[in-house]
């Protein structure tokens, strides 16, 4: 299988790349922007991995990437990309201000930076899948869609928008043997969330079914297992608590 993972050089994406590359039947393409060192290391470990540099917030780079997407001849698209600015006070972080204090431009900026790239890439992937009469789309959401926390309005609104789109993708493309499913993990500790207040992290841990913080490895394993289930399941959400 030829697989494309967006945002695959760090966090959950990196773990997914490692897991899927461990199966030599897969050839895994993954995108990265600032994490070239991580991308190079992944490619040095796996002969079936190929990193693609692309800043999805740069229209020129995004257009070049999507124009070349058909040349990758992918069978599976995993929408994992999410833009996390370095400044934790800026839009894109998991938790920011309460909704009534948010500037409307933050919502516009986040839509452009996070949803538009995913929309454009998925459109191009679907065109190829339709011609090929086969394709799988997995989009990473969040269990917080069911139980949002204070300050998460930007993040939750983005993920909810994607949730709606994934259902449409599944309906519109079913007859072309294309499936669209989602995965909704609970809170995970990554480079972007590890600096959160310990009390908040404990709160997330205690609210989970397992009373443990979810690991990116567990989520990557579940995605790998799901991909092995053939092309029967469609419009399904895998909740990982």
- Kindly report the CATH topology: Rossmann fold
Q: What is the CATH superfamily label?
A: NAD(P)-binding Rossmann-like Domain
Tell me the quaternary state.
single chain
Q: What is the molecular shape? A: globular
Cα radius of gyration in angstroms: 17 Å
Order of helices and strands: EHEHEHEHEHEHHE
**Alpha-beta content class:** alpha/beta
Determine the fraction of residues in helical runs and give it as a percent range: 40-55%
Largest sheet: 7 strands, parallel
Domain module tally: 1
**Spans of at least 5 consecutive residues with low confidence:** 86-92
Beta-sheet strand percentage? 15-25%
End-to-end CA span: 28 Å
Second-tier CATH architecture: 3-Layer(aba) Sandwich
Total DSSP E strands = 7
Mean pLDDT: 87
Note the total helix count. Answer: 7
What order do the strands of the largest sheet run in, or round the barrel if closed? 3-2-1-4-5-6-7
The first-level CATH class is given as: Alpha Beta
């Amino acid at each position: 299988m030829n697989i494309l993972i967006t945002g695959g050089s760090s966090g959950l994406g990196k773990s997914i790349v490692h897991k899927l590359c461990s199966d030599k039947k897969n050839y895994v393409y993954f995108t990265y922007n600032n994490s070239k060192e991580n991308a190079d290391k992944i490619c040095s470990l796996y002969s079936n991995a190929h990193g693609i540099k692309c800043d999805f917030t740069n229209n020129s780079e995004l257009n070049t990437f999507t124009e070349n997407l058909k040349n990758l001849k992918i069978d599976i698209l995993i929408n994992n990309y999410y833009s996390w600015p370095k400044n934790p006070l800026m839009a894109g972080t998991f938790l920011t201000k309460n909704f009534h204090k948010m500037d409307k431009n933050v919502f516009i900026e986040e839509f452009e930076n996070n949803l538009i790239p995913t929309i454009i890439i998925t459109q191009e992937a679907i065109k190829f899948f339709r011609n090929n009469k086969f394709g799988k789309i997995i989009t990473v959401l969040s269990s917080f869609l069911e139980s949002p926390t204070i300050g998460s309005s930007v993040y939750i609104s983005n993920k909810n928008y994607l949730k709606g789109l994934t259902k449409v993708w599944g309906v519109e493309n079913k007859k072309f043997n294309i499936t669209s499913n989602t995965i909704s993990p609970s809170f995970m500790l990554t480079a972007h969330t590890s600096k959160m207040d310990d009390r908040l992290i404990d709160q997330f841990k205690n609210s989970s079914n397992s009373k443990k913080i979810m690991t990116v490895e567990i989520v990557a394993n579940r995605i790998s297992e799901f991909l092995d289930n053939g092309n029967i399941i469609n419009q399904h959400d895998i909740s990982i608590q």
